[in-house]
Amino acid sequence: MKATFLIDTNQPLIIKEVETPVPTANQVLIKLAYSALNHRDVWIQKGQYAGPKAGLILGSDGFGTVTEIGSNVDPAWMGKAVIINPSHDWGDNPAAFGDQFKILGNPEPGTFAEYIAMDVKYVHEKPVHLTDVEAAALPLAGVTTYRALFTRAALKAGEQILITGIGAGTALLALQYAIAAGAKVYVTSGSQDKIDKAKTLGATDGFNYKEADWFLKAREATGGFDVVLDSASGKGFGSLIEVAKPGGRIVFFGGTDGPIGNIIPNKVYWRNLSILGTTMGTLAEFKDMLAFTEKHNIKPIVDKVYPALADTQQAFDYMHEGKQFGKIVLTNQ
After folding, report:
1. Do 143-277 and 2-138+300-331 fall under one CATH topology?
2. Tens digit of pLDDT for each residue in 103-155?
3. Contact by Cβ (8 Å): 254, 228
4. What value, to the nearest 5°, has the Cα angle with vertex 12 and ends 6 and 17?
5. What is the pLDDT of residue 199?
6. d(CA 183, CA 192)
7. 2-138+300-331, which class in CATH?
8. Shortest CA distance to 181 belongs to which of 206, 203, 159, 153?
9. CB-side exposure of 254: number of CA atoms within 13 Å?
């Protein structure tokens, strides 16, 4: 089969012929039709992510059809259209993953390939309201934002939430989930066009984080936020503390802008703020995310679909530019 291969860090991705996997007793073989990019894929290529740095088939999101089953798998799975939960071996503690935790695509062979063998416990039927492309775009962003919003931040109807970096697939799903939950949503972006697009999706308003005083404008306009959802971290994290209401929750799941700095401690403890880290989610949270997505007819926003695995490097370069509004999807052929 063909697969997109990372030979080494900071090297172009290549298409390589590899053995088609054979499913073990508890696995199914999935012929992948579409897969989707996440920022972690780009960071892995650049050597800025934990785990192996080379010899990888990347990719955490995928949609396809079951073509073969292991001996312990229910025959009813044959021919089903499915998506894959990329959050593996979480462990027994729902509060935090254990030592065996891993995310599909590093170190396990990922979804940028024609086929993938997968333990059936991580395989789910495609939500019926989604197109095949939308289904490929859902899993990682879906479970990440669902846990961040509802397990960690405990977002409630009527609360105000600020979602930073709108345009990313995770941020856009968070916007849709928060609105469905009855929250009042605001966003940030360095692009007015992205803010305007977010408003068409239901955001109340947005703020341009390139303006030095954006957090002052946000606080004056809104009175502050009950919840702030962030994936950038970096020096700008201090501004998020400025816009959180007393007793507010700041939840984050990424560090694209680097280490967090410029935090004044008394602005956290004096106002009883909670700063919450989160990564991926449990098996139960993935199932709950699918149920919530179907109940509210939520569809991931897709920015661009590339026609072949041979376009993977071009797709990575596009993601690194940061111009997308929604998920970037590959056709697995």
Report:
1. yes
2. 999 999 999 999 999 999 999 999 999 999 999 999 999 999 999 999 999 99
3. no
4. 50
5. 97
6. 22
7. alpha beta
8. 159
9. 21
Quick one: angle between helices 169-180 and 139-146, nearest 10?
Answer: 50
Q: Give CA–CA dist 103/77, Å, rounded.
A: 23
Token output for 333: 């052929």
Radius of gyration for the chain, computed over Cα atoms and rounded to the nearest angstrom: 20
Domain ranges in the chain are 2-138+300-331, 143-277
Question: d(Cα 265, Cα 104) in Å, to the nearest integer?
Answer: 37
Residue 15: enclosing H or E segment and its boundaries? strand 14-17
- DSSP state, residue 21: P
Pairing relation of β-strands 2-6 and 27-36? unpaired
The 10s digit of each residue's pLDDT in 217-242 is 999 999 999 999 998 787 888 889 99
Which pTM value belongs to this model?
Answer: 0.94
Backbone angles phi, psi at 176, to 5 degrees: -65, -40
Outline where the chain has alpha helix (H): 39-45, 132-137, 139-146, 169-180, 192-200, 214-222, 237-243, 265-269, 283-295, 312-321
**CATH number for region 143-277:** 3.90.180.10
Bridge-based pairing of strands 244-252 and 327-331 is unpaired
**Banded model confidence at residue 258, pLDDT cuts 50, 70, 90:** confident
Contacts of 251 (CB under 8 A, 6+ apart): 148, 149, 152, 153, 227, 228, 229, 230, 276, 277, 278
The pairs formed by 128-133 with CB atoms below 8 angstroms and a separation of 24 or more are: 128/294, 129/294, 129/297, 129/299, 130/299, 130/300, 131/299, 132/33, 132/34, 132/63, 132/81, 133/34, 133/63, 133/302, 133/305, 133/329
